Amino acid sequence: MITTQHNPAYGRDQIPMESRLAHPAVEFIDVHCHCLPNLDDGPESVEEAIALCRKLVEDCVSTVVATPHQLGRFEGRTGAPAIRRATRQLNDVLKERGIALVALPGAEVRVDERIDGLLARDEVLTLADAGRHLLLELPWDALIDIEPLLVQLACRDVRTVLAHPERNVPLLQHPQVLCRWLACGIGLQVTAASLLGDWGRHVKQAAWGLLTQGCRVCVATDAHDDASNGPRMTAAFDAIAARLGGNVAYLLCVENPARVLRGERLAPVLV
């Protein structure tokens, strides 16, 4: 089941501080997860993929968008037909094993000047294959101005969601560039583990900073396995609720991810 309606139990700043696991009424939608086997740097087998999916369910995720890398070093390995086929096969296995998780096809697309044309030819995927949000990955070691691409995609009525900007050092060193992109309507996907310090102090500080600047943000796992790089949505939800209030936690972890599935624009974070 995809939870998209406001849950009053988490609409107040006085959200209970005990673990989210004690409150199963709220279900998460994970819009960035490498859960398909043998496609990218995620699971290397079906069993590893199932182990990750079990962890997602334990973390109260009910719907996951499978987002293998496209383009960059994975070009030619993760085409749209292969991702759709692998997602169908994963759903079949999940159903057979009684795992209460629904997977939807998507991709984490490496920035490339050909994206607009590739999208038109159905060679790169949008999130949930819904045609409205493209999850864009930037290189780690260089700053590329993507404003022309943002304009191209907007003309196609496709909104760009920038993957884990809190981990992109060149971008963080040039905040004026991010401000220009935000003015173009870009959304941001902040990783749950970043908010919890798993990627280091500086990344944690940057992640929390993005939540307090009025940006359009959703939180996702970017999980690749069931161990060292596993899902952390429950802990992130609790941390956000403790620091910014229950309304913000619900928006970031439930409502904005649901907006992605519905093809709606992310709502800004107001704190």
SSE layout and pairing:
Blueprint lengths: L27 E6 L12 H13 L2 E6 L2 E2 L9 H17 L5 E4 L2 E3 L4 H6 L12 E5 L9 H9 L3 E5 L5 H4 L2 H9 L3 E5 H4 L5 H10 L6 E4 L12 H12 L1 H17 L9
Parallel strand pairs: 1-2, 2-4, 3-5, 5-6, 6-7, 7-8, 8-9
Helix pairs in contact: 9-10
Would you give an account of this structure?
The chain is built from 10 helices and 9 strands. The protein has 271 residues and is an alpha/beta fold. It has one domain: Alpha-Beta Barrel (TIM Barrel), CATH 3.20.20. The strands form 2 sheets. A 6-stranded parallel beta sheet has the order 3-5-6-7-8-9. It has a 3-stranded parallel beta sheet with strand order 1-2-4. α9 (233-244) crosses α10. The longest helix has 17 residues, at 80-96. The relative contact order is 0.17.
Strand content bin: 5-15%
Shape-level CATH architecture: Alpha-Beta Barrel
Question: Class in CATH?
Answer: Alpha Beta
Cross-sheet strand order for the largest sheet: 3-5-6-7-8-9
Number of H/I helices: 10
The percent range for helix content is 25-40%
CATH superfamily: Metal-dependent hydrolases
Major sheet, described briefly? Answer: 6 strands, parallel
Quaternary structure annotation: single chain
The number of distinct structural domains comes to 1
The overall average pLDDT, rounded, is 90
Structural class of the helix and strand makeup? alpha/beta
Query: What is the total tally of β strands?
Result: 9
Distance between the termini: 29 Å
Along the chain, the helix and strand elements come as: EHEEHEEHEHEHHEHHEHH
CATH topology: TIM Barrel
Low-confidence parts: 1-23
Using only C-alpha atoms, the radius of gyration works out to: 17 Å
Shape label: globular
